Amino acid sequence: MKKTLLAAALIAGYAGAASAQNSVTLYGVVSTGFKYETAKANSNAETKSQFAMDQGQWNGNRWGLRGVEDLGNGLKASFQLESGYNSTNGRQAQGGRLFGRQATIALEGSSWGKVQLGRAVSPGTVAFSGVDPFGASFGTSSYTSSASQSFIRYDNMVTYATPNVAGFNAIVGYSFDPGLSSNSFREPGDDYSAGFETNDKNRIASLGARYANGPILVSGIFDYIYSDNRNQGAGIVDNNTNVKAWQVGGSYDFKVAKVHAAYGQEIDGLVGAADGIANLLYGDSSDLGGNVLFARGVRAQTWMVGLSAPIGSGSLMASVQQQRPGGDLDLVGTANQTVASVGYKYNLSKRTGVYGYYSYAKNLNMIDGAKSNQIGVGVRHLF
Fold first, then answer.
1. Residue 4 contacts by C-beta under 8 Å, 6 or more apart in sequence?
2. Within 10 Å of residue 303's Cβ, how many Cβ atoms?
3. 22 or 115: which carries more pLDDT confidence?
4. What is d(CA 378, CA 355) in angstroms, rounded to the nearest whole number?
């Protein structure tokens, strides 16, 4: 009898310990296909073309681990580690980082919200999810072609997300060093590395808010990107400034179709600035753009209208977007970038689907005469 009671106690104790352990899930995406593309660098360049295998067109390829532990009283601890890779050659993405897509740990309370630490997408990226019918996928079709702020990742970031209250929630974040390349401290003889002090690094304050209830989605995002204290200016550009970027957008589901729209601005610089734009401004280099271009007086406006509609076991997507140079960026050599796209994705099962899309870009990266045509087809599998 005593042995039976002892065995029962040991089993109960083991079960209790096991339930307190992290629940860990392995997940991922494999997306591979073909792409035909023609490209023209500017109005004076020749048009070039290529037909090649391509990867990550419908969602970026990734594998990851996520886990959660219930700490009791409505408190949970969680982590997420996510790595990107190229499915056409097996190489690691995100500059060789092991977990370049996400590396976070978090504490979450059912009544007060969630605090998260590490590398992750920005608060604005989370809040803007669902605004673009193409998401952050399908080449130049994505609204990131005009507004990179709508999907971007930051290093060294702490975020706080409120609980969802009647469809409304908000996320605020601060990055001590976002890991974005920029022109903010590129002086003659500079080694391109940030200094020791906090103010020697680019920092970011980020905000995202959304309301999603029934057929309505409304979102607003704002990023304030601080330059470091070593700005000296270069060429004709005054980079002793901070970049301000915001977007508002939303969608409405009519059941037979969903309409999408967005509008935003970038002030005193560009987020996701193309090297071509930096070259236009500086006139003597092609590597001064990077992820953020600090330039006082430079502005850009962006807008997008789109449509998505369920058709059979799939979904039709279409959008037109534009990025318009303004302020000191409205100069010879720049022009309004316009991108028109259409696509269709078909679900063969809950985890496997095929897709096709076409995207045309005029004055790509706001460079006058630059053009691009993209046609892509492929298959995506979730695991």
1. none
2. 18
3. 115
4. 6
Burial grade of 24 (CB within 10 A; 0-12, 13-18, 19 or more): exposed
State the DSSP code for 162.
Answer: P
Band of the pLDDT at 91, cuts 50, 70, 90? very high
Say if residue 288's pLDDT is above 50.
no
Beta carbons of 53 and 33 less than 8 angstroms apart: yes
SS3 309: strand
Count H helices and E strands in the chain, helices first: 3, 17
- Is residue 125 classed as helix, strand or coil in its secondary structure? helix
**3-state SS assignment for residue 176:** coil
* End-to-end Cα distance, the chain: 48
Judge whether residue 275 has pLDDT over 70: no
pLDDT at residue 281 is higher than 90 = no
With beta carbons less than 8 A apart as the criterion, state whether 66 and 76 touch: no
d(CA 159, CA 104): 10
Beta bridge partners of 376: 35, 357
* Helix or strand run (H / E) with residue 346: strand 337-347
Q: How far is CA 122 from CA 87, 101, 134, 311, in A?
A: 25, 12, 18, 32
Task: Return the DSSP state at 280.
Answer: H
The amino acid occupying position 73 is: N
Six token digits for residue 135: 């998401």
CB 212 within 8 A of CB 227: no
- Number of Cβ atoms within 10 Å of the Cβ of 112: 13
Residue 212: both structure tokens together: 């999603």
* CA 209 remoteness from chain centre: 16
Q: Quote the CA–CA distance of 301 and 24 in Å, as a whole number.
A: 43
Residues 136-192: pLDDT tens digits? 999 999 999 999 999 999 999 999 999 999 999 999 999 999 988 887 754 544 554
Answer whether residue 11 shows pLDDT above 50: no
Neighbours of 322 (CB within 10 A): 18
Structure tokens at 156: 């060294």
**pTM for this one?**
0.87
